[in-house]
Fold each of these.
Amino acid sequence: MAKTLGEIKQTLEEQIGNRLTLKANGGRRKTIERTGTLSDTYPSVFIVELDPEENSYERVSYSYADVLTETVELNFEEQPSVAVAEQ
């Protein structure tokens, strides 16, 4: 991903509404993996709305520094490309 906090924030702002898989360091050698949708970005944090059938929480928030330090890893799902027909 990007190398500065500003670049990370800008990249995430372009992905709002897209589905993602989130891997976070849970401490003591635990890795937490969740799926959901990037719902919002704020000056210091971003919000992920989690899939309700898989998680007990509705949403989680992480800072851009978590992504920079690789405490959190985000993998966005590929969006289907839409072909434009020429007339």
Amino acid sequence: MHTHAHSRPPQDNRASGPGIVPTRVPHGRVREARELLSRDGAVILTGHENTSDALVVAAAQVIGDRLRELYPHRVRTSREGTPVHLHADSFDIIVDIGGVPHRRRHPDEDHVLVQCTRPAPHGGDSFALDAYAFVDGLASTDPALHAFLTGSDVDLYGAWADLRGLPASPRIGRHVEYTRTGRRIVRRTDGAVPIHRDPDIQHIRTQLARLTDAVHKIEPSLPRFPLDEGDILVLDNYRCWHGRDGHTGERSVRILTARSSDAG
């Protein structure tokens, strides 16, 4: 796989505030795509074929020799879809296949790739947020919520405890943590609940609700961007949250999550 050299610097396509407008880059310009992903936390690759194989190729291009694990493709089709709120992809599912455990999702997926296979006839534009900037801003605008996100343990997937394949042991963590190599993780999941019999259970519930309110409140102000057929949105899943507007008609995407050597 070749990396195409170029002399011009990456285009500065950053939005004001925590909103992100990913720069669109032809898929052959690998170096530029990597630089933009590192700088902005997101990039859109154009020109790939509208196939599931293209997601694997794109992951190899942007992550390179740091790529360690890919998880199974997921196809998401929505008809007359309601909005999808800001979130970071992560889950914790292990299945048994022929007596051998196989991990199908990982709590510390640090990259997510979303390929638009069928744009909606109307609506369905995407939006993304730099969660690092969002959390840092809370330190002055909402110190109590900032303290909760950085200092309180929750059960990250407890709301989904009845799903088959989800481990029985609670997955305990904080919304903001650091990997052993120093990478900051800012999580956003609807699965988070207080730890069983946490003495601060009411406080945790209140802060989880306040986080949801804060996220929903900021969404209307974020810049929107479309994904055309075949486009691949690549996100630093530790840094960026993403969502999309509601739409009419049918819309489909393929999703691939991955872990690099920098994860966990």
Amino acid sequence: MLIRSSKVVKVPLELTTAPYHQSILKMNGLSVIESCTHTQNNTGSMFLEDHLLLFVLKGKYTVRYGNQSYTVKKNEMVLLQKSITVEYEKSGEKDEEYLLDYMMFFLKEDLINEFVKMADLKPSYPAALVAVSVKSVNDRLISYIESLKPYFKQPEEISSGLIKIKLLELLFDVADTNENFYFQLLQLKRKERKSITEVIEENIFNPVTLNDLTYLSGRSLSAFKREFKEIYNTSPLHYIRKRRLDKAKELLTHTSLSVTDVCFSTGFENVSHFSKIFKERFGISPSLLKKPLRLTE
């Protein structure tokens, strides 16, 4: 199990509030985030609430998910599905005082559906799933990215309709650039069907919702709940909370992790809520359970 020492940032939502200061364009929940900064070996974790199309203009941005790792360098891009937790490491150009410049486009299902409808393309799929891969950005896409930069200077003056048109333009440009990217966009709509147990074990300690798990399993919500009940003889909420609390107790008892670290590393997002349900389950607060360990250190 990966032990996280800090909270997993939910994106795009939490990137738009302090202490993060990226520039942002928003339209009915659709988000484009620009970051241009000087940084070296900045690391962390983020949970993708929407599909992510990442462009790097300067520097290097590495994302890791499961046993997969993707390093996006200058004038490259990668498309990642939603409802996953990724570890990232980013660093700027060494010869430019570690300047890092990138844009993150968060794509909701509705936008992808509208693109497919507008393009009047017949959903055709390759025989096998197209693997996620890093692709070069051509001059056309670089020009598109540059055309967005002025919008970030006065985002409140940009109409939501224009933002939507620009995002649809992006999807057309990306689809025309590489056929595999078009297939990847379609695959975001057609999730690979995975076993319930595989989905649960891969995400038990991630800050996922029931809808996230449903999406990752490739099932409808009703089908997911039904099959889960058949396998575990309980509800997803009850099972996942029990597993997380059991793991939290183990970490509090046998490691030097703080209550806050244990909270975040087991998939909980609020320390107060975690402490409350922990005490309801075990009859003792996490902080009191932790005290004997501190006395022996």
